[in-house]
Design a protein that fits this description.
89 residues; 5 helices; mainly alpha; single chain
């Protein structure tokens, strides 16, 4: 994206009431949730999924994921797997 980060941040803040980092991290977490719900991605590590959506470290991803979903990525994946296999936790 070839634009000024300050300008982009102001636009995001004005229209979403979120700061730039929260906006981007929430988007990344939502993309990770989509990937984690697809059975063909279950063989990948959570760290791989985190890097695929733009996080540079697993710990930063875990913190952001829990912030926006209320649960850890591992718990989310476990829940998805159990639901798709007809089990419950």
């Amino acid at each position: 994206m070839d634009t000024n980060k300050s300008y982009t941040s102001k636009i995001i803040n004005d229209y979403s009431n979120k700061n730039y980092n929260n906006f981007v991290n929430e988007y990344r977490v939502n993309e990770a949730r989509k990937l984690l719900t697809e059975k063909e991605n279950w063989s990948f590590t959570i760290e791989f999924i985190a890097s695929k959506v733009g996080f540079k470290s697993k710990s930063t991803f875990n913190i952001a994921f829990k912030k926006f979903t209320g649960i850890t990525p591992s718990y989310f994946l476990s829940s998805v797997r159990n639901n798709k296999e007809g089990n419950s936790i």
